[in-house]
Amino acid sequence: MPRRAIAGCAAAAVLAMAALAGCSGDEDAGADEVRSVAATTPAAPPTPNESPADESRCVAVAPAVARAIATGLEGGPKRFEATAAVRSRDYERAWMVAGRFRPQGSDPLVGVWVTNDVSSQGPGLVYAVDPFAEQFSDWGDGDQTDAGFSANDDGVDEAKACLNQ
User: Fold this and answer.
1) Phi, psi (5° rounding) for residue 119?
2) Can you count the helices (H) and strands (E) in the chain?
3) What contacts 51, CB < 8 A, 6 or more positions away?
4) Which pLDDT tens digit goes with each residue over 118-137?
């Protein structure tokens, strides 16, 4: 599959994300820091010799990014219990971010969102990628974008596996 870039009207998205991160209106949003289970390896492009199950692909998600993505959670606290990310090999600049969250009255679930940045600068664009992210957040569905992000993309299962390290 050719590498594709995330569409680029990021300036408005970054401003919107900064506003959302600062005023989510949910007391739980900043109550606890998100536990990042990935190594503290800086976000770097994958190398050709990495295997799909290679734990070195797991990277930490900056707390500000995790909080910003969590502002879109619905049906419970707007925060993640844990997060991890993997850079997708299917796109030029796409990070699959797995987040463990707990909808009200439910056991913990893991959803995956795609973003173009997991560093402290903020997530930029964010889309829901897998069924739990689509069902329990108000982020747009990634499969409805020109890029057509899906749960079958490289990095989705790998990011989920990073949470189990």
Assistant:
1) -85, 180
2) 4, 6
3) none
4) 987 777 899 999 999 999 99
pLDDT at 76: 84
Neighbours of 143 (CB within 10 A): 16
Given a contact cutoff of 8 angstroms between Cβ atoms, the answer to whether 7 and 108 are in contact is no
Contact 17, 122 (CB under 8 A): yes
With contact defined as beta carbons under 8 Å apart, do 59 and 43 qualify?
A: yes
| 152: exposed, middle or buried (Cβ count in 10 Å: 0-12, 13-18, 19+) | exposed
Residue indicated by tokens 């969250």: 101
Read off the pLDDT of each residue in 43-60 and give the average, rounded to a whole number.
59
Q: Could you tell me the pTM of the whole model?
A: 0.70
137 token code pair = 């957040």
Radius of gyration over alpha carbons of the chain, in Å? 14
Q: How many other CB atoms are there within 10 angstroms of residue 44's CB atom?
A: 10
Look at the alpha carbons of 134, 60, 160, 92 in this order and tell me if their dihedral is positive or negative.
Answer: positive
Residue 139 corresponds to which tokens in the numbers above? 């982020």
Which of the given ranges, 2-11, 41-50, 91-100, has the highest pLDDT on average? 91-100
